[in-house]
Structures are given as C-alpha cells and as structure tokens.
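ugh finaly. both done.
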Amino acid sequence: MSTGKTMDLQTTVVRDEDIIFSDMDDETVMMSMEKGEYYGINPVGRRIWELLETPVKVAGICETLSDEYNVSPEQCRKEVLVFLAQLSEKDIIKVMNE
C-alpha cells in the first residue's frame, strides 16, 4: 500500500523507530512488529539503513553512496529513490513533510 508521498532529492527520510533489525552475515534483517513481516537487505541496503539513523535528505544519501561505491550520481539517484520508495511502501522508513 503506497503512502502517496513522493520523494525527490530534497525529501528528508528517517528509519521507523518501531522496526527491529539485526546484521546477519552479508545482509541486514528487519522485522516489523506491527505487521509481523521480515525483510532482508543487501550490504548497500544496509549502508542506506545506517545513513537513515537520523533524518537525512535523499541527496545526502546519494552523495555518500556515490563516493563510497564509485557509482555515477545519476545511477545512484535512480536506484536510491526506488529503494527508498519500497521501504516507504512497507512503512520501514518515514518520509518527513517539510
């Protein structure tokens, strides 16, 4: 179910504090207690999750990942926005109104 909130580079996002998570081998496993659902994310997703510990603009996430993973800014923006939209739809992150 979509929240109807669109994201762009100036959107601020943060983790939902109700999500329980743990690092296991090469992925992070998260659980929504409210929904009773588990989610797994890869190492890049884990890095994004780390960056979401405090409210951050999407542009800041993309800058960090572009530098750390040597990926083009355009490709990074595209993939990060898709990933964050998926997390938002599952209520794993909060999209903050500004």
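ok and the 2nd:
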Amino acid sequence: MQKKQKNILKQLQELDKIQNDEIDYSDSDDLSKLDFQNFDFFENKKQQITLRIDNDILDFFKKMGKGYQTKINQVLREYKKQKHHI
C-alpha cells in the first residue's frame, strides 16, 4: 500500500473513533430547511426502458452533451410535479 493510501486509511480510522456528540456542528447550515427530494440519493432507483422519442426531441437533448438522459428525466420529473399540483 502506498504511503498516501496508508495515511488516508489512518485518518479514516481516527474519524471512526469520534462519537457524534463530540462533533461541533455550529458552523453547519440548518439541514432541516433543505429540500431533500432534490438530492440524487433520495430519488427512486432508475429503471431501464425502451422509449420512442421523436428525432428532433432526442437531437435537442443530445446537443446538450453528456448527461442528456438525465436531463430528459429532469424534464419529466418537473412535468410530474406540475401535474401533481393541479
């Protein structure tokens, strides 16, 4: 194991020894005000499907570059939110 890796491992082991009540959170933001639904780790797991999309729509998103499928998902999620409020 390289010296840097050993150092990181040692630091992680030291962090594991700290109890939650020993941590000073006074300079942290109030997490209760955050909208946790916007965090990726709270989203539903993704399911692979086959979806037929018009070429011009697909080209529009692909021109945005890497992550175009995620952008399509975000647009569909926003549409869902709008419809849910009706």
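summary for the 2nd one i guess: Residues 68-84 form the longest helix (17 residues).
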